[in-house]
Write a sequence for this structure.
């Protein structure tokens, strides 16, 4: 049973179709990247998953059923526009938000303390939210998202505004949650973060799906079929190479469609070329996105 | 626990801890106590001189014949001087506190001129009474009996008794004493309604500004959120008005025992409490729903407060035209204000102290309020859900109208 299943979801505002026939599934234990530029329709899609706004057409199934009070309690949602009550303490905030997810007061308090301990913020539990730094506040928001041990996590731009230390802390926790078989939807326009974390992705642009599937498969599909080489010595003619481009410190070799990079490496080693670095060129998600948008492929 | 109750409890706890709420709730009893204290103090100052504290007032009689009744109540003695110069010298020498001149044409003109060293708005009541009594007693000397003279000084003590439909003395005797309590209550009512609905508006504004709204909506529905907030803050308002009512009861008793006089005529109409609570609940619900709508289309707390002025200004119309309502408690305009949901709570409270409001008017007024609340709730819930997550900009009027039309 997939954790999330969307079928042909559509939504428009003022006759402007902002989500157009979007479908995807997310399995338990997956980190699923919902990516696209700003204004692509990611947040609208997520708000429809959370039943905050209603789709005009299509079906949404969460944890095997349509969203109800019980399934809502099994989701942790970190919205893009987020904040906390400024005048109450860290502990009160966490306990209140956990109680809205169906947790009892005692269990919520104990879990809050456990999570605060995990992120080294236990000494701050009696501080008011307004007394915390911005980064600390964001960590507390993240803890409020996971305090009730949800089966499905939806994180909308979770790394926005975080410093590198807190970004790493969040990544660590996200990976821990994946190891606990939680389904995680990561919505972001920062594609490098997706590359580092996600198993599968959905790329949308102007409300439409432009790419969907396993990240590794997509990257392989859009591979440039070239290798980067740093070496000492003379290259000469290499079988299977159809072109060369000198980038100064390294050379890019363009392969014909049939030759594998391993064959090139074998030829170079057999010729006695001293190889300092050999990289198979794979396009970044950003490059893939640009290519897809520009060429429509 | 039911999520609506969780929100209700949270809103209640957060609001009763607000400085604004505590100050507002305590302000009425504290200010009233201070007012009673000041009033008692002033009364004490204005009291006639204590026994043994003699006041002497001089006079110059240019008519002749004003030479009896020099001793007046309140320890005031009148002393005659032959000339104005002599009286002025006595005043400057502090032998007398003031003096007056009875001119030769006094009987035809009634003019008496008073001379004093004090700066004052008007002559003290005790002085006026003493001079008047002195003049009257001398004018009527030998012409009537002393009893008639005293009656001329105070020709009547007018008392009014209101009878009920059966010809029996009514329990509610009306008058200013009966009007003032409902009137004060209407002020408290509007304060409580505006305070509670104002907190709702402020809370929504803060939640929009703090960007916590979407986090809440991921756990509860817009309906649960709105209901929990409205009920939580309504409970706060109810507590506030109950505190005011209890303190008002205590204050009325205190006033009756310490000040007496007018205060003893104060009456709390028996149905004030019941209708007061009914109109508070209905009035609050209406304003809360309207404020929720305003709060969801406003991008900041301040903007919400400005927009809400449309409703709050309409609600206080009865206060603005209160002289008209007092003179015409049964006029068609007053009746319309009683039936119009936004002005109904205040108008009913004001009218209760002035007249018996017909039962059909009260029933229709309450029915209209209930119908308006339900209608507003449907529309506000739609607006609430549609515009709650719109940050930083206010929806255009066209968008709001379209949203309401689709509701």
């Amino acid at each position: 049973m997939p954790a999330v299943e969307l079928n042909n979801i559509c939504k428009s505002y003022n006759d402007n179709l902002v989500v157009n026939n979007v479908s995807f599934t997310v399995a338990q234990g997956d980190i699923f990247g919902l990516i696209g530029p700003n204004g692509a329709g990611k947040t609208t899609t997520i708000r429809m998953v959370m039943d905050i706004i209603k789709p005009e057409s299509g079906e949404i199934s969460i944890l095997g059923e349509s969203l109800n009070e019980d399934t809502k309690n099994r989701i942790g949602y970190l919205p893009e526009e987020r904040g906390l009550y400024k005048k109450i303490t860290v502990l009160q905030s966490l306990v209140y938000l956990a109680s809205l997810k169906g947790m009892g007061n005692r269990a919520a308090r104990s879990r809050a303390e456990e999570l605060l301990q995990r992120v080294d913020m236990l000494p701050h539990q009696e501080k008011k939210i307004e007394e915390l730094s911005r980064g600390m506040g964001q960590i507390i928001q993240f803890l409020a998202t996971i305090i009730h041990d949800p089966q499905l996590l939806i994180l909308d731009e979770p790394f926005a505004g975080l410093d590198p230390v807190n970004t790493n802390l969040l990544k660590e926790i996200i990976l821990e949650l994946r190891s606990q078989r939680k389904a995680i939807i990561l919505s972001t326009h920062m594609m490098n973060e997706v590359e580092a974390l996600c198993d599968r992705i959905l790329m949308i642009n102007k409300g439409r799906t432009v790419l969907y599937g396993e990240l590794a498969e997509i990257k392989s599909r859009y591979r440039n079929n070239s290798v980067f080489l740093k070496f000492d010595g003379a290259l000469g003619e290499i079988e299977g190479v159809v072109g060369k481009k000198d980038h100064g410190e390294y050379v890019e070799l363009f392969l014909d469609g049939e030759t594998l990079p391993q064959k090139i490496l074998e030829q170079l080693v057999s010729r006695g070329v001293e190889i300092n670095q050999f990289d198979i060129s794979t396009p970044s998600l950003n490059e893939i996105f640009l290519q897809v948008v520009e060429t429509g492929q | 626990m039911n999520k609506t109750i969780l929100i209700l409890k949270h809103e209640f706890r957060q609001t009763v801890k607000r400085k604004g709420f505590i100050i507002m709730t305590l302000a009425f009893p504290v200010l009233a106590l201070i007012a009673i204290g000041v009033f008692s103090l002033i009364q004490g100052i204005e009291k006639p001189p204590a026994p043994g504290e003699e006041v002497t007032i001089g006079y110059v009689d240019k008519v002749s014949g004003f030479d009896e009744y020099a001793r007046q109540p309140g320890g005031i003695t009148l002393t005659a001087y032959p000339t104005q110069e002599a009286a002025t010298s006595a005043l400057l020498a502090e032998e007398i506190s003031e003096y007056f001149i009875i001119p030769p044409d006094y009987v035809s003109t009634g003019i008496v001129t008073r001379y004093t060293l004090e700066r004052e708005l008007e002559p003290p009541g005790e002085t006026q009474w003493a001079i008047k009594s002195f003049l009257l007693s001398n004018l009527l000397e030998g012409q009537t009996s002393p009893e008639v003279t005293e009656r001329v000084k105070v020709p009547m003590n007018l008392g009014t008794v209101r009878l009920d439909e059966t010809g029996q003395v009514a329990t509610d005797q009306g008058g200013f004493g009966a009007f003032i309590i409902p009137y004060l209550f209407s002020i408290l009512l509007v304060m409580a309604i505006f305070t509670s609905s104002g907190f709702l508006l402020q809370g929504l504004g803060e939640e929009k500004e703090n960007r916590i709204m979407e986090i809440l909506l991921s756990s509860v529905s817009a309906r649960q959120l709105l209901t929990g907030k409205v009920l939580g803050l309504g409970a706060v308002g109810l507590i506030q008005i109950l505190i005011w009512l209890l303190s008002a009861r205590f204050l009325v008793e205190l006033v009756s025992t310490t000040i007496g006089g007018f205060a003893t005529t104060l009456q709390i109409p028996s149905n004030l409490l019941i209708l007061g609570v009914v109109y508070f609940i209905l009035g609050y619900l209406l304003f809360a729903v309207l404020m929720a709508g305003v709060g969801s289309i406003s991008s900041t707390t301040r903007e919400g407060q400005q927009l809400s002025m449309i409703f709050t200004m309409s609600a206080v119309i009865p206060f603005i035209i209160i002289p008209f309502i007092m003179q015409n408690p049964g006029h068609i305009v007053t009746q319309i204000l009683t039936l119009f949901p936004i002005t109904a709570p205040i108008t009913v409270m004001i009218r209760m102290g002035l007249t018996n409001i017909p039962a059909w008017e009260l029933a229709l007024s309450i029915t209209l309020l209930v119908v308006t609340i339900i209608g507003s709730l449907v529309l506000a819930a739609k607006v609430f859900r549609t515009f709650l997550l719109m940050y930083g900009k206010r929806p255009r009027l066209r968008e709001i109208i379209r949203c309401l039309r689709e509701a």
